[in-house]
Amino acid sequence: MAEVTAKINKLDIAPRKVRALTRLISGLAVGDAEAQLMFRKERSTRPMLKLLKSAIANARVKGLNVDSLMVKTAFVDKGPRMKRWLPRARGMATPLHKDFSHVTIVLAESDKKSRFKVALPEMKKVSDKTEKKITAPKKIVKKKVDDKKETKEAGKKIEATPGPLKKVFKRKSV
């Protein structure tokens, strides 16, 4: 049974807030775990979803079947603590401790069927022919146009329109 891991180090969310999501997705099939993370509202769902997709991509690189993967374990360790001070009354200060966390997801193959399918973009192989066709983007040069003058570019007539401020200041007061 092959295993694949992915890690986030120094995630700037407290470990107890991330642990709720890791308890939710551990033991689920990869498609189900992704579906659970996509519809949650917690702040830690975006990095966790990104981590899960990274683990799935690691499994694809190893040659594992994505449909037969499950989240074997997901755990959160305490990371560094950022210490700051908050000024208070009478010249005192209160310490602020901002905890970071290290998150690890381990995927493994299983017989568990997923109710949802993981949507991954197809991997494209780049050949020598396609690399030669790619060219640098053309530079766009902007020309200044006076309000009253007309300019001609490539046989087309372009009239300069006054900006929004000119319209405001041309109005008569009532």
What would your notes on this structure say?
With 174 residues, this protein is of the alpha+beta class. It has a domain at 3-84 and 93-109: Ribosomal Protein L22, Chain A (Alpha-Beta Complex). It has five helices and five strands. The protein has helices at residues 15-25, 30-38, 45-62, 128-133, 164-170, and strands at residues 3-11, 69-87, 93-109, 150-153, 156-159. A three-stranded antiparallel β-sheet has the order 1-3-2. A two-stranded antiparallel sheet has the order 4-5. The protein is flat. The termini are far apart.
Mean pLDDT: 81
Major sheet details: 3 strands, antiparallel
Major beta sheet, strand line-up: 1-3-2
Oligomeric form: single chain
The helix fraction, in percent, is: 25-40%
Which runs of at least 5 residues are low in confidence (pLDDT < 50)? none
CATH topology of the domain at 3-84 and 93-109: Ribosomal Protein L22, Chain A
Offer a quick outline of the entry:
By secondary structure, this protein is of the alpha+beta class. Helix content is 29%, strand content 30%.
List the helices and strands and how they pair.
Layout: E1 3-11, H1 15-25, H2 30-38, H3 45-62, E2 69-87, E3 93-109, H4 128-133, E4 150-153, E5 156-159, H5 164-170
Antiparallel strand pairs: 1-3, 2-3, 4-5
Helix pairs in contact: 2-3
